[in-house]
Specification:
The complex is a heterotrimer of chains A (292), B (269) and C (317).
Chain A (H helix, E strand, L loop, with lengths): L5 H44 L5 H5 L12 H32 L4 H13 L4 H15 L6 H25 L3 H9 L4 H30 L2 H6 L19 H9 L4 H31 L5
Chain B lengths: L1 H8 L11 E12 L2 E12 L3 E5 L6 H8 L9 E9 L2 E2 L7 H7 E4 L10 H11 L5 H14 L3 H4 L12 H13 L5 E5 L7 H14 L4 E5 L3 H7 L2 E6 L2 E7 H6 L4 H7 L5
Parallel strand pairs in B: 3-8, 3-9, 6-7, 7-8
Antiparallel strand pairs in B: 1-2, 1-4, 4-5, 9-10
Helix pairs in contact in B: 4-5, 4-7, 5-7, 7-8
Chain C lengths: L4 H13 L4 H43 L2 H6 L3 E2 L8 E2 L2 H32 L2 H16 L2 H19 L10 H24 L3 H9 L4 H12 L1 H17 L2 H7 L16 H10 L7 H30 L5
Antiparallel strand pairs in C: 1-2
Helix pairs in contact in C: 2-13, 4-7, 4-10, 5-7, 6-7, 6-11, 7-10, 7-11, 8-9, 10-13, 11-12, 12-13
The chains are: A mainly alpha (292), B alpha/beta (269), C mainly alpha (317).
């Protein structure tokens, strides 16, 4: 007598195939759900936001009257904060990455720094706000200024830039470092002239993506005490400020429907900015993809 | 068994010392962790000749050539004893900077490893890191080095293109040109043709013949025919030891050690 | 191959001449690593700074409100005269956990299903289209999701649910936080499943197993540690999420959860206080640090747990 009953195997085959088909349908459905949500979200924002979108909306200050309100102060505030965040986070992030990849010995300290950075990336952004509030706003007496906001944001995105830069540096093949050392180049010469330029596209991609995250962040700057209603443009890094997401939060939390439509218009601008930043990052990534 | 007798009559490494050595290696030992990779290496490398290092894989020939410019120290667990004297200076002497040594002793690697820069910048890299900034001088050095590496005619119209666009054989000759640009005294070549097709290999071999007029060359190769074709002297490495070191024709036609004979006749390795 | 001997001498000698400037570069070789070390130390100081600020201010808070009351009182009612104020974080924790639970109910099945589809069923071409879209979803700022929750999901739920729903409630932000986390779970789980070698799949397929059986009985068990780690990271993300719950969740802390009613999460409370005119040095001011500390500990535990799971149970293929 055969151990396997061919008949029952055949009989069960139908059910099994049906289960496979049904499961596949469910999996596709789940995947499409995300796409559907994205579609609805974009449709809603465009349909609500487009009517208020105009050049005036961009160049006007915030106002209590929806038809005169604009995002000028918030837009410039965002640019000011990023002008602080970008160089600070780039220098600290790339410096840390170079240290960890090129100079650090494999010891407890290095391991500690590495674990530290990966855990820092998981800290909620609002906790960085509390850090900024205590250290920059109060302890260093910077107040709720562009500088305090920019530094807080730098610390927030620092782990992302460090990890991206480390990965970029690691893709530089050992062979070309050896070639450089073989010509009598010192370690720093090799890093500066060979490793860093070769890793730069990867580093830039990571940095731009991290900055685009900072552009969309609201919570830490709210905690810092960035103003929600601002009718002036920052004059220097010690000025008070607002940023785009905070302005959007302000409009969203008002009960009047008109302000919600303003918020939608502002969201369009914010998403366009993010889209541009992400496109640049993707362009750099694709242009220099797989050179080694 | 007459080979053993032969060995007693003519002790190896002692009959000829009729050249000026660039490297004198004395009792060199090297360990990777617990692994004793080079054992009591002792021989001299002549000036303006081609010295080939042959032996089966894992015999220490690559490790050996990398000790000559101290590239081997990039492996963290390496330990060494003994001395290597380059032009009357012990290269392990603390006062002798490793950068200075590598400026004199250039290296061409197993796999072509141009920098992700233009052809011009690849060749100009060496002079630049050693502080030569004058554009006219650089132009001259680049042309001369590319000519020296017999690749000038192929790349002269596209000096500003990325070196990664070149074929493997061209890349390797570019790497040789890059090495020539700082005008080293010695050129170390670590299996420079192992990643190349036969035609590119031939070109590199011809180049080596030309270069020995001006440079002392040490070449590691797993290809015995290559060693026979291009080298003046050959060292046969086995299990981290030098079994035999003599002029190439003698080694291949009349080896004094049984193990050498086994290897060159293809009985192992 | 005629070599100009005089010129050759000059290059070599030029390099020799430049040796003098090498002492200067030797200084660089010593200084540069120190500079980079300082960069690395600053990134450590960030963590130390976070822990230090949270600890000191929390300590001040516990001098005024007992730690026992903080963790046992179920009422959070700080905006009143001092003697009547209640600081029982359980109310805020319940709010946070409710939103997190709803989010995971949405994100885990959908995220995992999408991951299985992408890794086991989808063609390379489909994957190439869907993955960037998921990346776009992951890159949308939380303020935008908050707006979406308040102005679209809440009114929609109000129509669907019999008896309606409050403008501020736990359900809507919970669902939207879930939607926000889907891409994260999908992509991390897919990475884990992609790491399962194809030979394992082929082995099962060659026995006549269906794709579904391969996914559930071969790939998923093999990738389980990575998949679960992605869930844990998702939970951590949901706990720390701020803007969606602030905008759509309301500000009524309660331990008595009704998902159609307003709640308040830990994060939303911190925003509420920093938006108000609370003076420096008041009990309320210090309370945001105590809440922040609790939040930090919660997410830290989750992150460490995720790392532990993916490291401890890593499959060796």
């Amino acid at each position: 007598m055969p151990l396997i009953n061919k008949e029952s195997v055949k009989k069960r085959m139908g059910t099994r195939l049906a289960a496979n088909g049904f499961a596949k349908f469910l999996f596709i459905l789940a995947t499409c759900f995300s796409l559907l949500v994205l579609g609805v979200l974009i449709y809603r924002i465009l349909s609500e936001g487009l009517p208020y979108l105009s050049l005036d909306f961009i160049t006007n200050f915030a106002s209590r009257m929806p038809e005169r309100a604009g995002i000028w102060a918030a837009l410039l505030g965002t640019i000011w904060v990023m002008a602080v965040t970008a160089p600070v986070s780039f220098i600290l992030g790339v410096g840390t990455a170079i240290y960890l990849e090129e100079y650090a010995k494999k010891n407890a300290f290095t391991k500690f720094v590495q674990i530290n950075i990966s855990n820092l990336a998981g800290v909620p952004s609002i906790v960085f706000g509390l850090l900024g509030l205590t250290i920059f706003v109060r302890l260093l007496g910077l107040g709720s200024s562009v500088l305090a906001g920019g530094l807080t944001m730098s610390l927030l995105i620092l782990p992302v830039i460090v990890v991206a830069s480390q990965e970029a540096i690691r893709t530089v093949p050992r062979e070309i470092r050896e070639a450089s050392f073989g010509m009598g180049a010192t370690k720093w010469q090799t890093i500066r002239r060979i490793v860093f330029p070769a890793a730069l596209p990867g580093i830039l991609t990571g940095t731009i993506l991290a900055l685009s995250r900072a552009v969309g962040e609201t919570a830490p700057l709210l905690v810092l005490g960035a103003l929600a209603y601002v009718a002036f443009v920052p004059e220097n890094i010690f000025s008070q400020f607002t940023v785009l997401p905070i302005q959007l939060y302000n409009w969203t939390s008002r009960p009047q429907e008109d302000f919600h439509m303003l918020a939608a218009s502002g969201i369009i601008i914010l998403l366009i900015i993010l889209l541009i930043m992400n496109s640049i990052a993707v362009l750099i990534r694709n242009k220099f993809h797989k050179r080694f | 068994m007459d080979i053993t007798i032969n060995k007693q009559i003519v002790p190896k490494n002692e009959k000829e010392q009729d050249f000026t050595p660039v490297f004198k290696i004395n009792n060199l030992n090297l360990w990777y962790g617990q692994d004793h990779a080079l054992k009591d290496i002792k021989f001299d490398i002549p000036e303006k000749q081609v010295t080939a290092i042959i032996g089966p894989s894992g015999c220490g020939k690559s490790t050996f050539i990398k000790t000559l410019n101290r590239m081997v120290e990039m492996v963290p667990i390496v330990r060494m004893s003994g001395e290597i004297v380059y032009r009357d200076k012990n290269i392990f002497n603390a006062k002798y900077g490793v950068e200075e040594l590598r400026t004199q002793v250039g290296m061409v690697f197993q796999k072509p490893n141009p920098f992700p820069k233009s052809i011009y910048e690849n060749v100009a890299y060496g002079p630049r890191i050693h502080g030569i900034k004058n554009k006219k001088v650089l132009d001259e050095v680049v042309e001369k080095s590319l000519r020296g590496a017999a690749i000038w005619d192929e790349v002269k119209d596209r000096l500003n293109e990325n070196a990664y666009g070149l074929s493997g054989g061209q890349q390797q000759r570019l790497c040789i040109a890059r090495c020539l640009a700082i005008e080293p005294d010695v050129i170390l070549m670590d299996e420079p043709t192992s990643a190349l097709d036969p035609i590119s290999t031939l070109k590199v071999e011809e180049l080596v013949q030309e270069l020995k007029k001006d440079y002392s060359i040490v070449i590691v190769t797993h290809n015995m025919q290559q060693a026979a074709r291009i080298s003046d002297r050959t060292a046969f490495f086995l299990n981290g030891e030098v079994v035999e070191y003599t002029d190439t024709s003698t080694l291949f036609s009349n080896p004094s050690d049984k193990r050498t004979e086994d290897y060159i006749t293809g009985r192992f390795g | 191959m005629s070599r100009d001997k005089t010129n050759q001498k000059s290059i070599r000698s030029m390099i020799q001449e430049n040796k003098s400037s090498r002492s200067q570069s030797a200084v660089m070789e010593k200084v540069v690593p120190k500079i980079f070390l300082i960069c690395a130390i600053i990134s450590i100081f960030t963590t130390i700074g976070i822990v230090f600020t949270l600890l000191t201010e929390t300590f001040t808070f516990f001098n005024r409100i007992s730690i026992v009351e903080f963790f046992t009182n179920t009422r959070w009612f700080p905006f009143t005269s001092d003697e009547n104020a209640d600081f029982g974080i359980i109310a805020l924790i319940m709010g946070t956990l409710t939103v997190t639970a709803i989010a995971m109910v949405v994100a885990i099945p959908i995220g995992l299903a999408a991951a299985i589809y992408l890794s086991e069923y989808a063609s390379a071409k489909t994957r190439k289209i869907i993955k960037p879209i998921l990346e776009v979803l992951a890159g949308i700022p939380t303020i935008v999701y908050g707006f979406f929750a308040l102005t679209f999901v809440t009114p929609l739920l109000d129509k669907i649910i019999p008896g309606g729903i409050s403008i501020f409630n736990a359900l809507s932000p919970g669902i939207v936080v879930g939607i926000m986390i889907i891409p994260m779970i999908a992509s991390l789980s897919e990475d884990a499943m992609n790491a399962v070698p194809n030979s394992m799949r082929e082995g099962a397929l060659a026995l006549g197993a269906t794709r579904f059986e391969v996914a559930m009985k071969v790939v998923l068990p093999a990738a389980l540690s990575g998949v679960i780690a992605s869930f844990v990271l998702g939970i951590s993300r949901a706990i720390g999420e701020t803007m969606i719950v602030t905008i759509a969740g309301g500000s009524r802390p309660t331990a008595d959860i009704n998902v159609t009613e307003s709640i308040q999460t830990m994060t939303a409370y911190i925003v509420q206080v920093s938006q108000g005119d609370t003076g420096y040095g008041t009990t309320i001011y210090y309370s945001i640090y105590a809440v922040g500390m609790t939040l930090f500990v919660f997410t830290l535990i989750m992150n460490l747990l995720a790392q532990f799971i993916s490291r401890k149970f890593r499959e060796e293929y």
